[in-house]
Input
Amino acid sequence: MLVSIGHNYFMESDRVVAILEPNSSPSKKKKRDAAEKGLIIDARGGGPTRSLLILDTNHVILCSLQAETLKSRLNANAFKRERNVSSNDGP
Output
């Protein structure tokens, strides 16, 4: 399922492995390593980096939304997906 990550950017929610705060040492290292490999996606829309999304492809998405906001959106998508699956199972 697609989830909005702000500024009219959307991504597949199943791809997210982690959401990191941008100023931690692990975040900085992950961002640096991804930049060296050309795996950075800038979805900030000109805003500041407030979180990093780590994908299962090792891409790192720079996002201007807070980590808590992204977590809420991803959890809401997971809940919707779970409800759709269980309602399609039938009796």
Observations:
- Residues 24 and 30 are 10 Å apart (CA to CA).
- The chain has a mean pLDDT of 91.
